[in-house]
Amino acid sequence: MVKNLLKACCMIAALTAAGQAAAETYTVGSGGTYRPFEFENSQKQLEGFDIDIIKAIAKGRRL
């Protein structure tokens, strides 16, 4: 009985936290000074491995 109550409380807490996380804003900072991980291209936009990873995470989380 206690285990089921604990499981239910954990599930409610997880679902509540997941609903709140979707409303948050994520800010990512980068200096753009460490090739090939991050750098500025000729149009002053950041490119590189780290930037690609950040974009993939954002796409996966639908941000």
UniProtKB/TrEMBL annotation:
<dbReference type="InterPro" id="IPR001638">
    <property type="entry name" value="Solute-binding_3/MltF_N"/>
</dbReference>
<dbReference type="Pfam" id="PF00497">
    <property type="entry name" value="SBP_bac_3"/>
</dbReference>
<keyword id="KW-0732">Signal</keyword>
<protein>
    <submittedName>
        <fullName>Glutamine ABC transporter</fullName>
    </submittedName>
</protein>
<feature type="signal peptide">
    <location>
        <begin position="1"/>
        <end position="23"/>
    </location>
</feature>
<feature type="domain" description="Solute-binding protein family 3/N-terminal">
    <location>
        <begin position="27"/>
        <end position="59"/>
    </location>
</feature>
